[in-house]
Design a protein that fits this description.
The chain contains twelve helices and 22 strands. By secondary structure, the chain is an alpha+beta fold. The strands form five sheets. An eight-stranded antiparallel sheet has the order 12-13-14-15-22-19-18-17, with no helix packed on it. Helix 7 packs parallel to helix 9.
């Protein structure tokens, strides 16, 4: 009975945030007939502009008919393999994206590519299977067109298939999901609408452009961040906008008003959210090698005429996103005082409120644990949970009620966000109410104090009653613990010493954990946990010096 009540609560606190448009979209998907266009393809539109080389991902097709996605390799032997139920759903989606068409050294695999395009058309009947879901159509359609614009030849069958895919997509937009899915639908319709000519192609372009105009103001925050608050998904949307800008130049079309400014702000946001190693931090669903590298995206932006950013200041605040970066001489900290994401689509959110990531001597030291898997299994839930992040856990509960694979019920709200600088010290602080659903209504408040060579983190837990408190610091796998004495830990990072000291009424535990820098990868690591059971209010101070 208790589990049933909990499930009902989760559903209520999830559904109550949905937009009417999403609910209507779900109903329409149940009753709608998905029409299929079998008419001859529209003619291709001529262009006089220049297509710039797009950003390139790592190689996905490693041999003819053999693909490697998410650090897992499979061979496509028979037509049933396109929808092989024994392979992960996300792997199959990647198979249908055709990302290798524009990957590194793709020109060397042109014969493989022509063969797999033919196979896809012959072995994926219209409207059936993973390849005909709107999101996979959207990414594949863009990749086929980018492949063609890069100087490769689409034959008659390819062009007819592209036309059919665009028509099918136009009748099956993902209004039930919105977010990055609808954005991808819009991008694909704009690509198809400009690649082809004719009345239907013009309709695709108008539909895609109208969605784009609406979603730009919705999904790109004033500070340049993508509203899902994931550095990885931010990179995806940034690449989308760069591709669209490239396309507008090619067909000599004036980009939407303000697009250049949004792209520039998105570039700045991405740079702020990167570690000194040049790659993204791990907040919410985020992992490496799912997008082009940050360096590759910046080079692409430069080819399109976007000026690279100047060196970052001591403090960078992304006000609307809720993230901040502090850049000391030998350390960089990236701090999360953000919401879990847009209320109506928090599917990529983690319960990571008031977490932070820290690099010292240009190496990652304190990290969030990353993302290696999607789906609805226990490991997906664990990786989204608070204990996998560098923040505070109370009574072994998550700060936001993440559940299933992509759902959030009651979620933490951040307030009392403050920033100040005084006496050569930088102060950042905030509180969140995610634990107020627990007895005694605990509130977690955290303050970071930065000075050269030292970071102090003060965690205050207010409320009533006795509670178990865990201060969690996941460590990067390359960090070596060389001494554990009383309340003091000494670490080795690239032959440099770092000290971590806790001040409170608890005890340090070193717990074996895992780190997930890419999909399909779990690396053994350690996390420091300072554990105490105390009557509230209570306080713990963590000092990190080098």
């Amino acid at each position: 009975m208790r589990n049933y009540v909990k499930l009902l609560s989760n559903y209520w606190h999830t559904i109550r945030y949905l937009k009417f448009r999403q609910i209507l979209g779900r109903i329409q998907r149940k009753i709608k007939f998905n029409s299929v266009n079998t008419c001859p393809a529209n003619k291709l539109r001529k262009h006089n502009g220049r297509w710039r080389i797009p950003a390139k991902r790592s190689q996905r097709m490693i041999k003819k008919n053999i693909f490697r996605f998410l650090n897992e390799t499979h061979q496509i032997n028979v037509k049933e393999d396109w929808n092989n139920s024994s392979w992960a759903k996300l792997w199959l989606y990647n198979l249908h994206y055709f990302d290798d068409l524009t990957a590194i050294d793709s020109k060397k695999r042109i014969n493989w590519h022509n063969s797999i395009l033919d196979r896809w058309i012959n072995e994926n009947p219209v409207g059936k299977g993973n390849g005909w879901e709107p999101y996979t159509i959207s990414l594949r359609l863009v990749n086929w067109i980018k492949w063609s614009l890069s100087g490769n030849v689409l034959n008659k069958a390819h062009i007819i298939s592209l036309n059919t895919q665009a028509h099918f997509l136009s009748k099956n937009l993902e209004t039930h999901l919105l977010g990055n899915h609808l954005f991808a639908n819009a991008k694909a319709l704009i690509f198809a609408g400009l690649f082809f000519q004719g009345e239907e192609a013009n309709d695709w372009y108008k539909t895609g452009n109208n969605i784009l105009l609406d979603e730009l103001s919705e999904q790109i925050l004033p500070d340049g961040g993508n509203f899902e608050l994931s550095p990885m998904y931010h990179s995806i949307i940034l690449e989308d906008l760069l591709d669209l800008y490239n396309l507008y130049i090619l067909f000599e079309i004036t980009p939407p008003n303000g697009l250049e400014a949004k792209i520039s702000k998105m570039i700045n946001w991405l740079v702020i959210m990167c570690h000194p190693d040049g790659e993204i931090s791990f907040f919410n669903d985020a992992t490496l090698n799912n997008t082009p590298t940050v360096e590759e995206l910046l080079r692409y932006a430069k080819r399109l005429g976007f000026v690279q950013q100047k060196p970052l200041p001591l403090i960078s605040h992304l006000k609307e996103s809720g993230y901040s970066r502090v850049s000391l001489k030998k350390a960089v900290a990236i701090i999360d005082r953000a919401a879990v994401g847009p209320d109506y689509i928090p599917g990529h959110a983690h319960a990571d409120t008031l977490s932070f990531e820290l690099s010292i001597f240009s190496h990652r030291v304190v990290v969030n644990s990353g993302t290696s898997i999607y789906g609805i299994g226990k490991e997906r839930i664990r990786q989204r949970g608070t204990f996998a992040h560098s923040t505070v856990v109370i009574d072994n509960e998550n700060s936001s009620e993440i559940w299933a694979g992509f759902r959030v019920a009651r979620r933490a709200k951040v307030y009392q966000v403050k920033n100040s600088t005084q006496d050569k010290k930088t102060y950042l602080s905030a509180s969140h109410d995610g634990y107020m659903r627990l007895p005694g209504k605990p509130v977690h408040s955290r303050q970071w104090i930065f000075s050269e060579g030292l970071i102090e983190i003060i965690d205050r837990i207010s409320g009533k009653g006795y509670h178990t408190i865990d201060i969690v610091l996941p460590l990067h796998p390359d960090v070596i613990i060389i001494e554990n004495k009383n309340d003091n830990i000494i670490l080795d990072v690239a032959n440099n010493r770092i000290n971590i000291e806790f001040e409170g009424k608890g005890n340090i535990k070193i717990i074996e954990s895992t780190y997930h820098p890419e999909f399909g990868i779990s690396i053994q690591s350690n996390k420091l946990v300072y554990k105490l059971t105390e009557q509230l209010p209570t306080e713990v101070i963590t000092r990190i010096d080098w």
